[in-house]
């Protein structure tokens, strides 16, 4: 879905760039009308390949980077090979939620963006050169193309130099492409493990008391405690769902800015958008219900009753 949205939205920008490029080429080639069409076709080919490559790398970005190294609200797509990720984009509010960096600095995130952007441009250039690198057999290319006949020795040296430059440029692009692919694979392995149970929000661990739901005060006491190892306990819980002390136990993990309760349903496990601000925990469900919890100090053992600092 992110790839299709990228194609639709960024396609408008690429089309605008094509129109600007067409006007510039038309003005520069007023006296060479025969070459305008060929240059316009080359421009259209390059921009089309850039759009497709950007869409593919945006898909990688959505799967590997967003929700793992950073979180932004109202996400459509954040990656573009033209401009980097900024703090303003991350902090852009959506309702009462804001994005945040997840264990990395903005500089480190922008280095990752630079890797993706370089890969996008490298793939585009390699594909463009691959499509156009085979001219017709009777076409002269290289340093002697379009000019008067040169001496055989000079022609040979000039052709070798031109061929060397083309080969060197193509080899650099291929090397950069391989480095990008390897880096993406390594990054996928690294960040893939960082969103499991071992990836804990340090401010979440502790005991919390349920205060309100959609601004309505919760009168019956209800507590939940999150442990660093991914265990969780809630109380008081109804009979049939709890032990003899009225405590229900389970596990949780974080996926980016989402708190996921592990019920054994895999991708269908209940998840809520989470925000911790000091001693307040706000959870927003898929139905947009806003649940507010306040931290209990000191931590309670499951089954005990306590008070939140604001009570």
Question: What is this structure's SSE topology?
Answer:
Blueprint: H1 2-28, H2 33-64, E1 70-71, H3 87-91, E2 100-101, H4 106-132, H5 152-194, E3 206-213, E4 216-217, E5 223-226, E6 231-235, E7 248-255, E8 258-262, E9 271-277, E10 280-284, E11 290-296
Antiparallel strand pairs: 1-2, 3-4, 3-5, 3-11, 5-6, 6-7, 7-8, 8-9, 9-10, 10-11
Helix pairs in contact: 1-2, 2-4, 4-5
Based on CA inertia axes, which overall geometry fits? Answer: elongated
In whole angstroms, the N-to-C terminal distance is 46 Å
Work out the helix count: 5
- Note the main sheet: 8 strands, antiparallel, barrel
User: Regions with pLDDT < 50 over 5+ consecutive residues?
Assistant: 140-147, 149-155, 186-199, 307-311
Please provide the count of β strands: 11
Q: What's the Cα radius of gyration?
A: 29 Å
The helix content, as a percent range, equals 40-55%
The structural class is alpha+beta
> How many structural domains in the coordinates?
2
Estimate what percentage of residues fall within beta strands. Answer: 15-25%
Order of helices and strands: HHEHEHHEEEEEEEEE
Overall pLDDT metric:
75
Strand order of the largest sheet: 3-5-6-7-8-9-10-11
């Amino acid at each position: 879905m992110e790839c299709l949205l990228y194609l639709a939205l960024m396609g408008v920008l690429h089309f605008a760039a094509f129109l600007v490029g067409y006007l510039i080429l038309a003005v520069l080639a007023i006296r060479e009308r025969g070459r305008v069409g060929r240059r316009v076709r080359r421009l259209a080919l390059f921009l089309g390949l850039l759009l497709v490559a950007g869409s593919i790398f945006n898909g990688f970005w959505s799967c590997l980077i967003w929700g793992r190294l950073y979180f932004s609200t109202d996400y459509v797509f954040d990656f573009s090979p033209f401009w980097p990720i900024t703090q303003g984009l991350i902090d852009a509010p959506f309702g009462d939620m804001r994005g945040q960096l997840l264990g990395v600095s903005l500089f480190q995130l922008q280095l990752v963006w630079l890797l993706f952007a370089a890969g996008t441009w490298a793939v585009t250039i390699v594909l463009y050169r691959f499509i156009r690198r085979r001219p017709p057999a009777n076409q002269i290319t290289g340093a002697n193309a379009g000019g008067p006949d040169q001496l055989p020795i000079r022609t040979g040296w000039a052709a070798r130099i031109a061929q060397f430059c083309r080969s060197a440029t193509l080899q650099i692009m291929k090397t950069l492409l391989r480095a990008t692919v390897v880096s993406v694979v390594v990054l996928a392995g690294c960040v893939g493990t960082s969103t499991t149970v071992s990836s804990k929000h340090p401010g979440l661990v502790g005991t919390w008391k349920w205060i309100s739901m959609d601004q309505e005060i919760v009168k019956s006491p209800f507590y939940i405690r999150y442990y660093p190892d991914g265990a969780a306990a809630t109380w008081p819980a109804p009979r049939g769902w709890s032990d003899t002390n009225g405590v229900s136990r389970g596990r949780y993990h974080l996926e980016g800015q989402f708190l996921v309760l592990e019920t054994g349903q895999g991708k269908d496990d209940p998840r809520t958008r989470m925000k911790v601000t000091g001693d307040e925990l706000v959870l927003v469900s898929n139905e947009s219900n806003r649940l507010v919890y306040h931290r209990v100090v000191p931590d309670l053992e499951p089954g005990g009753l306590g008070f939140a600092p604001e009570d």
